[in-house]
Each structure stands twice: as structure tokens, then as C-alpha cells.
Amino acid sequence: MKTGVIDVGGGLRGIYAVGIFDYCMEHGIKFDLGIGVSAGSANLVSFLAGQRGRNYKYYTEYAFRPQYMSMRNFIFKGSFVDLDYVYSTLSNSDGEYPLDYDAMNGSGAELYIVAANALTGEAKYFDKSDIGQDNYDVCKASSAIPFFCRPYVIDGVPYYDGALGDPVPVKKAFELGCDRVVLILTKPEAEIRSPKSDERVAARIRGKYPAAAEALCRRAERYNAGVALAREYAKEGRALILSPDDTCGVKTLKKNRNSLERLFVKGSRDAEKILDFLDK
């Protein structure tokens, strides 16, 4: 029985998934495969490394530093979130809170990180072979929010946030051989995503990256379809969907410690459902 977990990300709303993964580490719950999108990629690498509490500190402490995300970054570096600060300065072996690369790489679980080719709009699925000690560029690529971040370049190819390519990679998980999947959403499951905000952002990048802009305009449709597919699998007992009943006011780039803490607690509580799902 091959069990996968998918973290769709969602900026700071990703702390909901942090609560779930910390619960899993506390209770010895492991997965055979993980797929991370955007912030979900960071959550997953720490989970596979067994570093309980690491992502919590990133969301509730480091994210409040201007070096991490700020209008100053946007003005002087062209990216509201300094991905190099997050995934290199803080995360490298000489950083303030390094990722335990050896533990992550040796975890035995398959890992896939989704990014979107900014030139074609198509999904790119990176794996462990694309990650090295102090080389977490694939997480940077997966987390490069259009307009708010410049596309991140790997081997000459610019990449945007993985949600443009495959926002809810449930189909991909089963194609990779999973028999059952835990899907972590960071918005209420019943919430239908609207394309309006995406279309406004797409207009800002269309001149230079028209294919990425088109992919962004289709993100809501793909997201809604992915959740609908997960529901079908859930009816068959092959998927468990975990999502907050509300986001506690947390938005993609909106910082409020009290709201973040509340959403983290919701994730910790909802994670209890995983034990029953795996027992079945």
C-alpha cells in the first residue's frame, strides 16, 4: 500500500499544513511519497527531514523579518519574498536554522516539487535528484509567486510558482503509483476558487511571460477540478482531504501572529483524521 501526501501550499496559509506535519512527526506517521507545491515544498522537505518545529519558526518568526518579505525587498530586489534569504541564507548548513539535508535525502520517501515553466506555463516535477546540500533552488522556483516575485531561473529556465502548472496534483500522485493519498488544502474544501484576482496579476506578467499569464488565468479552474477529483477518490476511500473550516484571516502574504497560531492549531487538530484513514 503506497501512501502519498500532497501539500498545495498557499503562502502563509501553509502553516495549516505545518500543524498537520508536526502532528505526524509527533505520532510517527510517515508517507511513501510527497508532492509539494509552492510553500508546500518547504513544508515537505522539513517533514521528510524529521525537523518538527522548524517550519513553525519560519512562519511565526522569520516571516516577520523585512529580509524575508517586505515592500523594501520588492522595490530593491524585484521580489516581495526574498527566496534566496529563505532557502539559502536561513536554510543552508551555515544558516540560522539549516535543513537537515542528509535526513531529508535519506528518508526513503519519494519527493516531488512542482514548479511552472514561465516560458511555457507547463508543470515541472522536480525530485530529490534535483536537490543537493545547500542547493534548494527547486523550492525557490516552486515558491516564486507571479508578479510578487521574479521567476526563479534554474539551468537557464525561468520558473514560477508550481500552482500555475498543477495546483492540486492528485492525478499526478496516482500516476506515480499511490494507492491512497492525503490531500492538504489551505482553504476550506467547499470554497470555489475564483479567477478574478489571478487575472489581475496575469495582466502584470503577460507582456514578458504570456504562457505563464495564461496558465495563471486557468489556475482557478484547475484547482477546482483537482479538488473535485479528490472528492471522487475520497468517496472510494482512496483519498483524505484535510482543509481548515476557515483560514482565521490568514492570507497568502498577510502577517498576523495570532491568526497564524490559530490556523496552526486547526491543522494539528485536523491531523487526527489521518490515523483513522491509514487504519482503513
Average pLDDT rating: 97
How large is the radius of gyration? 17 Å
- What is the first-to-last residue Cα distance? 11 Å
Helicity range: 40-55%
**Poorly predicted sequence stretches spanning 5 or more consecutive residues:** none
Helix and strand pattern: EHEHHHHHEEHEEHEHHHEHH
Largest sheet: 8 strands, mixed
Number of helices: 13
**Mass-distribution shape:** globular
Annotation, overall tally of beta strands: 8
Structural class call reads: alpha/beta
Strand % is 5-15%
Please describe what this structure looks like.
The protein is an alpha/beta fold and 280 residues long. It contains 13 helices and eight strands. It is globular.
Main attributes of the structure:
alpha/beta; 8-stranded mixed beta sheet; single chain
